[in-house]
Amino acid sequence: MENEDYLFETVKRRLRITYSGYDDDIKELIQEGKSYLVSKTGELPFDDLDSNLGTNARSLLKIYCQYHWNNNGHLFEGDLRSQIIALQIEAAKVKRQAKK
User: Fold this and answer.
1) Which run of H or of E encompasses 89?
2) What backbone phi and psi angles, to 5 degrees, belong to 74?
3) Greatest CA span in the chain, whole angstroms?
4) Using one digit for the tens of pLDDT, what is the confidence trace for 5-55?
């Protein structure tokens, strides 16, 4: 399974949706979540299934999607501030290591 398909399926599972009627909405929500997190941290390896940064980015993305799917998107940043900051720090460390 390709990584984008994997991401879609994991988000869909997180939302507890078993039918395909909302697939396009979920895909759009995933793109919005990716854009949001990238705007906070810089580029993230959402499709890297083996890195801690990729795992943490996917985890926050799933939570982002869940909050927005349940019409609580306005609470996401406040509720998950520490996780967003931790992701920012981790992304900065990885970027710094890559420059060495």
Assistant:
1) helix 81-99
2) -65, -15
3) 47
4) 889 999 999 999 999 999 999 999 999 999 999 999 999 999 888 899 999
Burial class, 87, CB count within 10 angstroms (exposed 0-12 / middle 13-18 / buried 19+): buried
Q: 3-class DSSP state for residue 88?
A: helix
Measured CA to CA, the distance from residue 7 to residue 29 in angstroms comes to 12
**Nearest CA to 82 among 60, 52, 65?**
60
pLDDT at residue 1 greater than cutoff 60: no
Query: What DSSP letter does each residue of 37-57 carry, written as one string?
Result: HHHHHS---TT-SSSHHHHHH
The encoded tokens of residue 29 equal 């929500």
> What letter does residue 29 receive in the DSSP assignment?
H
Whether 37 contacts 57, CB under 8 Å: yes
Q: Please, are residues 30 and 65 in contact by the beta-carbon 8 Å criterion?
A: yes
Rg of the chain over CA atoms, in angstroms? Answer: 14
